[in-house]
Design a protein that fits this description.
The protein has three domains: 8-44, no CATH class; 54-124, no CATH class; 130-204, Alpha-Beta Plaits. The protein contains five helices and seven strands. It has helices at 8-16, 97-115, 148-154, 166-170, 200-204, and strands spanning 27-30, 34-37, 42-44, 67-68, 71-72, 176-180, 186-190. It is extended, with a radius of gyration of 23 Å. Its cofactor is FAD. One of its GO terms (molecular function) is metal ion binding. Pfam families: Fer4_7, Pyr_redox_2. It comes from Desulfosoma caldarium.
Length: 219
């Protein structure tokens, strides 16, 4: 099997039954013999089941909720065309679990604002382009996490710094330093007198945290 998402007792039961899990495998074509990989290897099979995700079943929605191309249409606060209904997750757009968690928090904040007669706050920063996230330090073989901190450290989709220290180590001018806060938090601080705008930090960061801002042109 080329699936890697099956974990825990389900995976153990499948392995006892003779199933084999292989990852990473990249499919080139489905042939009469089975699955042809990009490496040229043929995984022989009588039956090939293609699992590429599900489309949401939205038939239960009232007519007051607008949809678009098979998904629920929402605004920046995940409020639908019916002001009493909010929607998140794959019903809105296909994505990762962390995308749904982040959307849920934004929707909950918007609902709380409405309950208290406030206008829902807009996001402080736009969602990061997922193409900027790198996977050099992500271990897909991990099947469980001992703590929330460990889970956050392995996350490769939320766009939050996980304190790997790569930016501090790679900066050629030692312009980046880690500053600890009073509550156990921290921030990465850039010394503008040392930064030369080389972009090494932005290129190395696995979470896409760093951005380079172009200087104002000299008059």
């Amino acid at each position: 099997m080329t699936l890697r998402d099956l974990t825990g007792k389900e995976r153990q039961a499948a392995q006892k039954a003779g199933a084999q899990f292989r990852w990473p495998c990249f499919t080139k074509a489905i042939t009469d013999r089975g699955v042809e990989l990009t490496t040229g290897e043929i995984l022989e099979a009588d039956t090939v089941i293609v699992a590429i995700g599900d489309q949401p079943d939205l038939e239960f929605l009232p007519k007051t909720v607008q949809t678009e191309r098979g998904f629920i249409k929402v605004d920046d606060a995940y409020q639908t065309s019916d002001p009493q209904i909010f929607a998140i997750g794959d019903a809105v757009r296909l994505g990762l679990l962390t995308d749904a968690i982040g959307a849920g928090r934004k929707a909950a904040q918007a609902i709380d604002d409405l309950f208290h007669g406030r206008r829902p706050k807009q996001a402080l920063r736009p969602m990061m382009d997922p193409r900027r996230v790198k996977l050099e330090y992500f271990d897909p073989r991990r099947l469980a996490f001992d703590s929330l901190d460990q889970c956050a450290g392995e996350c490769a989709s939320c766009g939050s710094c996980r304190d790997c220290g790569v930016c501090v180590a790679i900066c050629p001018q030692a312009a980046i330093s880690r500053v600890s806060g009073q509550n156990g938090d921290f921030e990465m601080v850039v010394n503008p007198e040392r930064c030369i705008g080389c972009g090494f930090c932005a290129g190395a960061c696995p979470c896409g945290i760093w951005n380079l801002v172009e200087n104002d042109p000299l008059e």
